[in-house]
Write a structure and sequence with these properties.
Elements lengths: L2 H6 L7 H10 L16 E3 H9 L3 H8 L8 E4 L2 E5 H8 L5
């Protein structure tokens, strides 16, 4: 069977041999896997959270105490560091 016939024939009508031939015609996948950037995007303090979410200082403080954000930030004394990717994921938002 010619290549154009295989491309137009429905899969449920193909024999195993035809299906394997169609698969061999497909483009091979790249050998190296696509890596994602795992470096965290950090924002500092309530000001950073406020700018990330586009909200007021009071709202940022309320969001900071949201139980969904547990593990998304670390605080030592007055210093707060938020992982912007984790915060956005926990709140169901897309990162900028």
């Amino acid at each position: 069977m010619t290549n154009t016939n295989l491309l137009t024939k429905p899969v449920w009508q193909m024999t195993g041999e035809e299906l394997l031939e169609l698969q061999s015609m497909a483009k091979p996948e790249p050998e190296h896997p696509i890596t994602t950037n795992k470096t965290p995007h950090l924002v500092y303090g309530l000001r950073g959270l406020r700018e990330l979410l586009g909200c007021s200082h009071t709202t940022a403080n309320k969001i900071k105490h949201d139980p969904r954000l547990k593990g998304c930030y670390s605080q030592i004394g007055k210093k707060i560091v938020f992982d912007a990717n984790k915060v956005s994921e926990a709140l169901g938002r897309t990162t900028k």
